[in-house]
Amino acid sequence: MRILISAYACEPGRGSEPGAGWFWAIAAAAQHEITVLTRASRAHTISPNDVPPRMTLRFVDLPRPLLRVVRSHERLYYVLWQVVAGVEASRLHRRERFDLVHHVTFANAWTPALASMARAPFILGPVGGGPTIPPQLLAELSRRARFFECLRVAVRRINTFNPVIRYGWSRARVIVAQNHETVEALPREYAAKATVRPHSVVGPDLERQSRLPRGRDEPGHPVAVLSGRLLPWKGGTIAVHALRRTRQEWHLEIIGAGPSETHLRELVYRLRLAARVSFTPWLPREELWRIIRRADAVLVPSLRDDAPFTIAEAQALGVPVVAFDQGGAAVMGRMSGTSVSLVRPASTAGAADAFAEALDDIAANGEPRRPSDAFGLGELENYVTRLYASVVGPESSSRR
Length: 400
Description:
Rossmann fold, globular, alpha/beta
């Protein structure tokens, strides 16, 4: 098939949105001829050696004077870029006649996806944006953070009636949602054509890491890792409180940075856990993977999350994960071959107790590690092939 992919964020060697955009495009290129629309402002991050034979990149962007003005305003930049990408998608389709158009990033159902302007069968997703923080966990947030969480949910509800966003929903033959909460948040007529698949995927670099020796076989205290942006809704305080409640003397490595770091450091000091908690700033991906590979568990106590890449990375390295039974973690934790302990989102104190119990169970279990291929590139290639065939059939109409 000839596929046009819209991927605003699309960069090799990255996680999160850029990594998802890149890997979904790579997966599509395994069996199809694809053209990828992405930002010209990030073209320098993609080497010609990274591009597989069946992939063609089309870099589009805003006029340079406008780009200088809006580049620091990500949301505005994204919306305006979508307009440019939509016009270019329509032009390319008139000239090249694609069998299918696929929007991949940004992975949020409540933002525009204007590649749908091309008059070809359209797939939206994987997209998220549906998960919200359970009311019983809102106490984890400051008053200011609770205000912004309520504002986020209100904006999402308002955007449900945005005709530009609804246009993408209406044009989609299939909406790939990252979690069940996103499906439930869509209007009924669009939820009916949704299927669930997280966007998180790991590439060959990490899969090679999973085959290396663990690197820490000597006896010692079990170690848990919490990595990523240190934001209020990421639940770092739950991880710290859980550490204090474990029966075994777990140690916690917090890797990353963000506005919650000061609060977390103060909490560690107040609970007298300084000897058991370490803080490390951002690390290169390979160094982070080495630390995770040596750890005994990875904690993902996010109060809401669409599909944490950390879970996919930890599972590919064979490291057990503890996460809330909601959002993308709930979907990822139930995929075949995974080892994710899913914790019900009870009250703050109850959540910390449940995380602590899960950690102690992991320490007591002692089972050998089994790296999971559930989030590998091969699995994604198979999924993408089935997805495209479900929309336009196994044979491209352009081959007739």
